[in-house]
Amino acid sequence: MEDKVKYEMEFPIQASPSLLYNYISTPSGLSEWYADNVNSRGELFTFIWDGSEEKAKLVSKKNGERVKFRWVADEDTSYYFEIRIQVDEITKDVSIMITDFAEEDEVNEGKMLWENMISDLKQVLGSV
Predict the structure, then answer these.
(1) Tens of pLDDT along 47-88?
(2) Is this model's pTM higher than 0.70 or not?
(3) Rounded to an integer, what distance in angstroms lies between the CA atom of residue 59 and that of residue 72?
(4) What is the 3 state secondary structure string of 51-115?
(5) Among 64, 28, 47, which Cα is nearest to 113's?
(6) DSSP class of residue 1?
(7) What domains appear along the chain, each with residue ranges and CATH number?
(8) CA–CA separation, 24 vs 66, rounded Å?
(9) In angstroms, how far is CA 13 from the centroid of its own chain?
(10) Within a 10 A sphere around the Cβ of 122, how many other Cβ atoms?
(11) What region does 19 belong to: left with phi over 0, alpha with psi -120 to 50, or beta?
């Protein structure tokens, strides 16, 4: 299997960090923008898109700040995806920081997917 490459993205967003955290850390919040439906049993989250399911384990979270998931299919690897809320201490501008992994020839596709999903999140939040 080909090694995946890590990539990071930043999306400025106009929303309160506490509201944002609900949208990135709860099944109901994630199902508003990330997937068609999201269920969780403890640390195991099931993401559903167009009838297909992908399972991910919540690897870590820091309240009000970030969540990190690892796809069950990648369980034996160091690959993960992280959604982090960053607040600029001086301007108080809020950004969502994405860290993800993709095979080298799929990085652009992955970035476009995140751009579309964050665009959906901004619409849900009324932060367009």
Answers:
(1) 999 989 999 999 999 999 999 999 998 888 999 999 999 999
(2) yes
(3) 11
(4) CEEEEEEEEEEECCCEEEEEEHHHCCCCCCEEEEEEECCCCCCEEEEEEEEEEHHHHHHHHHHHH
(5) 47
(6) -
(7) 4-125 (3.30.530.20)
(8) 8
(9) 14
(10) 18
(11) alpha
